[in-house]
Amino acid sequence: QVQLVESGGGLVQAGGSLRLSCAASGRTISTYAMGWFRQAPGKEREFVAAISWSAGATIYANSVKGRFTISRDSALNTEYLHMNSLKPEDTAVYYCAAKAARGLTTMKDLYDYWGQGTQVTVSS
Fold first, then answer.
1. Per-residue pLDDT tens for 5-61?
2. Using CA atoms, how far apart are residues 110 and 87, in angstroms rounded to an integer?
3. Which helix (H) or strand (E) is 118 found in, with range?
4. Which residues have C-beta within 8 Å of that of residue 80, sequence separation ≥ 6?
5. Which of 70, 96, 121, 124 is most buried when burial is the number of CB atoms within 10 A of its CB?
6. Residue of 45, 46, 85 lying closest to 65 (CA atoms)
């Protein structure tokens, strides 16, 4: 089993930055693909970014490309989401996810483990 705990959310003004962290415990995630998703009120959970087990490949949703950067530190069993130039439409609960199989995917149903989420609110 893998337990994931997100942190780093909060309230920020439009144009600001935040860094989300996701700490894993229970077993090493060094061979897992990792992802970030978000869910705004009244909307479905949507893909944000994913990173391969080796950190050699990343993919992003078009809505965050060029503004968000996903990274990971396997030694710390942690992944990160660096968010710059935040917009009010980025407001959501952000979830990290881990996928035992190594391939990258945007499909939330293919992720095996989820964190409890952290709220990000961007004011205009």
1. 999 999 999 999 999 999 999 888 888 999 999 999 999 999 999 998 887 899 999
2. 28
3. strand 118-123
4. 19, 20, 21, 22, 70, 71, 72, 73
5. 96
6. 85
